[in-house]
């Protein structure tokens, strides 16, 4: 059984490592990224447009630079109105369903430290007009833009609908929902919180949408469940075969103890050994059989008895007595005697069933019940 346990331990850890690898791959593939920049890689058709406070009488300006690989523009926020702003808007050709996406990521770089805002503009059936872009409901999230490139990841499920927009459109301030399944545009806004009255540059790159494809996780769970079941069934069968083989081997090894009557007929170097072995072979089923009982009946001291048994069999008195009793019990169980396990245990000299079961399992590698089942199948 030791080799079996070594094998199953090795295979278990290999299987465990493979399972971790499958889980790692599943998590890797479940994270799906859809690029919007560069434009050529985007699955959604869009156009880049500037917006500013000029529609409100302001004088802020935006000029695009570079190409479709990024959003690069020069802007100047001027204080002609109370809340000036200028920025870039990525407008889809039609309403797009972005509801499966959980996050958007991008890198930003500005000439000077600046607080910018990311917006999602979505259709609102109650107030949106096709010819009025500012009638689209929008949700926002602030981020900082610095002279060095920084990456940002924005959770699309937790954006804020500004209170001023709700009030401007006579919408209750508690109505902060927004619909990703009818998205019209994404935008980046520079406003009065940044430097004013001077020309500056903003550079947005690697604009990417993210979602989690749980099919990979469910596939991994299904695959691991099936393979672990196969693994367990296979090794349970191997265990049963190995257990049967071990029991048979233990039975064979214990035949000298089963045939205990013959032990006393073997030639020994002195009479004391012969008398001791014969006495134990005849009395081992006696519940009163003990070292003290043997000392009293044979007139040998305790040390002498143990030394004789160790010299002859390599066992102590208690170990040899248990060997004899367990060997006889295994013979009775194997012969399918019409008695239960408890009766057999008492008949061979054991007074404690739990103790008998523990010794039996240590000796034969299985419980008496399992031993009985194996014996019936032989």
UniProtKB/TrEMBL annotation:
This is Transcriptional regulator, AraC family. It comes from the Bacteria. The keyword Nucleotide-binding does not apply. GO terms for molecular function: DNA-binding transcription factor activity; sequence-specific DNA binding. It holds the Pfam family HTH_18. The chain crosses the membrane at residues 12-30, 216-236. Residues 274-374 form the HTH araC/xylS-type domain. The keyword DNA-binding applies. Keywords: DNA-binding, Membrane, Transcription, Transcription regulation, Transmembrane, Transmembrane helix. SUPFAM superfamilies: Homeodomain-like (SSF46689). InterPro entries: Homeodomain-like_sf (IPR009057), HTH_AraC (IPR018060), HTH_AraC-typ_CS (IPR018062), Tscrpt_reg_AraC-type_HTH (IPR020449).
